[in-house]
Write a structure and sequence with these properties.
Length: 261
């Protein structure tokens, strides 16, 4: 029996890393906790931000013909890329995916004396929605513990005065019910009517994923990131100063809507 299954990280993809990184720092009040050299083998570079033991990552291509670059083309620009959960029972989940016939595109393990992390990336054509990754980290139930992808000292950068944590994400689809049922089957977790708005929702031990209808012409994908916010007026004021689109409870950055709760 799984002890926990929780949202730990959202990854976005951008054509140009530097300007969107600056927007995240200036508007959301976060600071870079790590730049992972390991993503270089995929033709990417990245910036990772920590908030309350959850992580926001932005990756950007450094050369032509990368998976990230093709995703940018397919979804017509910057936007959501990965939904990443962590668990304690990775072996059982790996076997479950194999029994379902789901293709595993990456089965990774990396670590050092400080921390270790493992990740199973599932083929998006077999999952729908976006790239789904199921991970396990040496921090285990302690969300302030080892998380190798975030570097050896990420905790010292997890000190935002405006953000507490990532609490969820929203996917859009032509058939949100079928997508929700597929993710429920993959993650062995129930879905129910969304508490807010239309569509279905999966509530994990921490965080949620909502499955809703298409909101734009960019195709199926991750369209919203939900944040628990310490200082919403401060974020909205920073968005106005930066010229970033915003509303009463959201700011639009990197091709997704950050909903502030």
């Amino acid at each position: 029996m799984s002890k926990y299954l929780r949202l730990r990280q959202i990854c976005l993809v951008a054509e140009d890393l530097a300007p969107v990184e600056k927007q995240i720092v200036d508007v959301l009040g976060l600071e870079v906790c790590y730049r992972d050299p390991g993503v270089g083998k995929y033709g990417l570079h990245n910036a990772l931000f920590a908030m309350g033991g959850t992580f926001l990552e932005v990756v950007s291509p450094t050369r032509p013909d990368t998976a990230g670059g093709r995703y940018l083309e397919r979804r017509k620009g910057d936007g959501g890329y990965m939904y990443i959960v962590d668990c304690d029972d990775l072996e059982a989940r790996r076997e479950h995916f194999r029994k379902l016939g789901v293709r595993i595109v990456q089965d990774l393990k990396s670590g050092d004396d400080v921390s270790t992390s493992e990740a199973i990336h599932l083929h998006p054509k077999d999952t729908g929605g976006c790239l789904l990754s199921v991970d396990r980290h040496s921090g285990a139930e302690d969300v302030t513990g080892g998380y190798h992808w975030a570097g050896p000292s990420w905790q010292g950068h997890d000190r935002s005065k405006t953000m507490s944590s990532i609490v969820g994400a929203g996917l859009q689809s032509d058939d949100p019910v079928a997508l929700a049922e597929r993710w429920s089957e993959l993650l062995q977790w129930p879905v129910a009517q969304a508490k807010e708005g239309e569509g279905l929702e999966m509530q994990l031990d921490h965080g949620f994923v909502r499955f809703g209808p298409m909101r734009d012409d960019r195709g199926e994908g991750l369209r919203a990131v939900h944040l628990k916010c310490k200082d919403k007026p401060g974020v909205l004021a920073a968005a106005k100063k930066a010229g970033v689109p915003s509303g009463e409870n959201y700011v639009d950055l990197v091709g997704v809507r950050f909903v502030l709760a």
